[in-house]
């Protein structure tokens, strides 16, 4: 499996704290069937405290650590880019990274509210030839209140990444129920762990949500969210998705 959202690089953000913890996360991911993780540190933490150059050195060191310890996990570099009006400029400056240097970029919407600049900023990113992959939409207030906003973005060519734990209730019933709605309505394209630690509710157990998702959308579609689609993203290949189903139950 391919995990496209994980805070596995040590000492960067609120994820792994040490190389030893990164090694434990790597071992746990392999145990649960993951072979590739896209490391996605928060852009804000990197910009304020570190640098992209530091990330490149760090991921090389962590891959070397895995090889030395016989852990068959490959780490690739990306970034969780919180959406802000200056994100397009940060992309141009090389301080906001895409997913494995592809056309796809992991974007985190504001958790609360719906700033007036959201639509224009996402369009600006697309105008640069990039495809936003919207991180954990099931936990974003704007989408919870108006799922059709997410449908609008998907119809404009964006992708959606749900968290495996959300499928099984890690973030509570409301988030779980909304995640199931997104699955049934064709608004979930990638499932990732959003791992922050080796164990607990934020572990790199990517497969935790597959069985439940399979009951909702079928085994083939559920498997594609952790294999076919993320592999296409990492390989910078086109991703073909169905038209999302809109809802009349807007809050």
Describe the structure.
- Helix 1 (19-31) links the parallel strand 1 (2-6) and strand 2.
- The longest helix is centred in the first third of the chain and has 17 residues, at 52-68.
- A 5-stranded parallel beta sheet has the order 4-5-6-7-8, with helices on both faces.
- It is α/β, with parallel strands linked by helices and 251 residues long.
- It has 12 helices and 8 strands.
- The protein has helices spanning 19-31, 43-49, 52-68, 87-92, 118-127, 141-145, 147-155, 164-167, 173-184, 210-217, 219-224, 228-234, and strands at 2-6, 36-39, 74-77, 81-82, 104-108, 131-135, 159-163, 190-192.
Secondary structure blueprint with pairings:
Elements: E1 2-6, H1 19-31, E2 36-39, H2 43-49, H3 52-68, E3 74-77, E4 81-82, H4 87-92, E5 104-108, H5 118-127, E6 131-135, H6 141-145, H7 147-155, E7 159-163, H8 164-167, H9 173-184, E8 190-192, H10 210-217, H11 219-224, H12 228-234
Parallel strand pairs: 1-2, 2-3, 4-5, 5-6, 6-7, 7-8
| Count of beta strands | 8
Number of helices: 12
- Poorly predicted segments: none
Distance between the termini: 35 Å
Report helical residue fraction. Answer: 40-55%
How do the strands line up in the largest sheet? 4-5-6-7-8
Relative strand content: 5-15%
